[in-house]
Amino acid sequence: MPEIITLDMNTASIQYLCARDKRLAKVISMVGPITYSPHEDDPYRFLIHEIIEQMLSVKAGQKIFSRLEDLCDGNVDPDNISSLTDEQIRSTGTSNAKVEYIRNLTNALESGTLSFDNLTVISDKDVIRKMTKIRGIGTWTAKMYLMFVLDRPDILPVEDGAFLQGYRWAYKTIDCTPASVAKKCKKWKPYSSIAARFFYRALDMGLTKEEFHLFK
Length: 216
Fold this sequence. Notes:
The chain is mainly alpha-helical. The chain has helices at about 10-20, 20-30, 45-55, 60-70, 80, 85-90, 95-110, 115-120, 125-130, 140-150, 160-170, 180-185, 190-205, and strands at about 5, 35. α3 (about 45-55) crosses α4 (about 60-70), α3 packs antiparallel against α7 and α9 (about 125-130) crosses α10 (about 140-150). It is globular.
């Protein structure tokens, strides 16, 4: 049974973040409690989904992934992916490049070049270093893995468009260079991932469609 985690005003990390950043505190109050479970039970499936969704909308990515699921009889795992031809994977709407990336990940796991068990016990930087050695897995994908599979608490996803949309909204800025975002969000450490989750949820809830008001 996956662990269920709740983030609310009784959570020490939330109390810390609210005390450090008044704009983030307002976002947290608007969003309310967040409950989630890490994707630790199926890391391969998570990564295949992330590879497919790169540079696509969530809706388009989910549609393609659902077709791949159908080809795998609902179980997207290395054995089922290996049994498919490149043409079958492309038939889902996946690009040639992403077919290659899916193969690269699958081969890395089957050869032992990448081990999910090993990733759970090494540092954030080492996880990114190991994962990005695989062609098709970049820093963005590695950070999504750290946040949503390993549930690491201090990942700042400066490469992620959805996060930056929430960031622009709350801070009323167009400067989203990695250096600028990292400087502004330094106060979130060591809970950057937790702060980011509230920006994602604000976006999902449609809150970013209205102007952000700190004191309203």
